[in-house]
Amino acid sequence: MKRLCLSRFFLTVFFCTSLTAGVFAQDIILPAPLKQGGKPLMQALNERQSTRTFTGDELSLQQLSDLLWAAWGINRPSEKKRTAPSARNIQEIDIYVTFQKGLFVYDAQNHILKQVHDRDIRSLTGTQDFVGKAPLNLVYVADMAKMNKKEGDPVADSELLWSYANCGFIAQNVYLYCASENLGCVVRGLIPKDKLAPEMGLRSNQIILLAQTVGVPQK
After folding, report:
1. Burial of 68 (0-12, 13-18, 19+ CB in 10 A)
2. Who's near 212: CB < 8 A, 6+ residues apart?
């Protein structure tokens, strides 16, 4: 009996330590987002800016939870609607998250990060030097299968118009969250998509739109 209790104790400690220490060996169960507090909206708008110099400090698990919920989380569960608008409510945008420990995709319905792989591909998310050193890069991907595009089908720029607009709403949510929480971020369009897409395991009908770096600004 004592051995059984001890085994359960150590398993619980290991599981909790893995999450809080940032050991991304599996899907990450995010804590519930904190939906109260933060700076007033007008102050956050006044302080919103782009940042390109970051410390090596990682975001806490709570900050990561709040950031992703603010960006593209579900705020009306009964309708499965989000914190950012989506044309015709198609919700075709996926947020991929790149850490030193691997690549994850945000599952808003369950509020978890699902691991794609355990390779560090941060440097492939942009052409500037800082992207490979910043703790966190978000990659916004339009899943055109939700718009009835099959693999191999051509996707014209005009067909991505609403996806880029939807992506912009999400990126601005990230900017406002970062301004409210004294974090830094910058949205980026210079991405080596031909190299990044295969490393992310994307289908041909999954289109990379933009990337956004997030971290603690260097003062």
Report:
1. buried
2. 137, 138, 140, 171, 174, 185, 186, 187, 188
Residue 136's DSSP bridge partners are 214
Measured CA to CA, the distance from residue 69 to residue 190 in angstroms comes to 25
Q: List domains and CATH numbers for the chain.
A: 25-215 (3.40.109.10)
Q: What is the pTM of this model?
A: 0.88
Where are the extended beta strands (E) located within the chain?
A: 28-29, 74-76, 81-82, 93-99, 102-107, 112-117, 136-143, 184-188, 206-215
pLDDT in tens, the chain (219 residues): 444 443 443 334 334 444 434 444 599 999 999 999 999 999 999 999 999 999 999 999 999 999 999 999 999 999 999 999 999 999 999 999 999 999 999 999 999 999 999 999 999 999 999 999 999 999 999 999 999 999 999 999 999 999 999 999 999 999 999 999 999 999 999 999 999 999 999 999 999 999 999 999 998
Q: How far is CA 103 from CA 20, 60, 69, 118, 151, in A?
A: 18, 17, 18, 6, 22
Q: Which residues, 6 or more positions from 84, have their beta carbon under 8 angstroms from its beta carbon?
A: 71, 72, 166, 169, 170, 173
Phi, psi of 189 (to 5 degrees): -110, -15
Q: How many helices (H) and strands (E) does the chain have?
A: 5, 9
- The alpha carbon dihedral of 30, 34, 38, 44 has a sign of positive
